[in-house]
Design brief:
The protein contains 15 helices and seven strands. It folds into two domains: about 110 residues, no CATH class; about 240 residues, Orthogonal Bundle (Hypothetical protein af1432), CATH 1.10.3210.10. About 50% of the residues lie in helices and about 5% in strands. A hairpin with a 2-residue loop joins β1 and β2.
Amino acid sequence: MSAVSNCSLYSKEHASVDDLTNEAFSQLVELLNESESLEIMVVESDLVVNKTPLREIGLQGTNFIKRLKRKGLSRIDILKGVTQPELKRLVAEMAGNDEGLGTSPHIKGGVIDVRIGGLKLDADFDMEGLAAFSAGQVDMVRDVYDGISPFKKLNIAGLEEIVVNFIVTFRKEVNILKLISPVKSYSEYTYTHATNVAVLTMFQAETLGIKDILLRDIGIAALLHDVGKLFISKDILEKKGALDQREWQEIRLHPLYGARYLAKVEGLTRLAPVVAIEHHLRYDGKGYPKLRLDGKKQHICSQIVAISDYFDALRSRRPYRRALEMKEIISIMRQEAAGGFNIALLAHFVKTMHSALSQ
């Protein structure tokens, strides 16, 4: 981008453009020694490089996104074997005002042809493909959760990739209910539930007009809302029967455990510990854990996650009860609306669920 900026100010033949292009080329060659290609995509306002969302892109990253959008592009692939003249031509084309890019053997530009987990998402993406996609995301969540420990660094990039994958899928106007995964075993409940709550939360948030960084952050917070359960005994979590008073008291501590862990994770959205500690608080503040909020309500993102959490918990088969049908779930949630949920948000959720059922 420094080369592009100088090319815009002067000309493609200017010495500074040559110097900066050469510097960029040497760095590019090093990167391509470890990979066959460099895949750069713009998803909404996020920069995704080799399927990894970048959190800190700085001014040059922001300018790169603007340049790409101005040229009608959302993707550039740079392949191993790229030459210095090819890169210099890319710099000149990025600096110009014409749309698109010229042909080049090792540099391809265009709109995103999204492939997630090896699956191409298009208009006729079928149910079997969606099931495989959702199962793949659950596996990714499991991998992230398996790495969670007070002594290990949380894989934030992995969380961001999962969130971006689902956001891109929403853009294909996929029926939201087809993205919700069934719980195959009791031991998988934590991962599957976390994935489903994230899907339902991002769907709610997007239909409410939440976009860009906040949409991504609320998706990550939803993925981690129950992370405190990883610090609860599996004997309690997977018990086939009703919990006794001691076990129930231990379960009620998971929001506190989760918030305490997430608050210490560097680089993580600050929404994550807030949602973790508030998702069982209830709209009227009478849930758990007991917090002194000084008259303040749950954060609105916690309110959205609470609806998603409750809905998916009821529709999932558990050791102590059967999975409930949609009409039963909606009826129960409406009964809880008096103090359990934000009535306006719940009404919106029910409306969007009915719309999804009619598709």
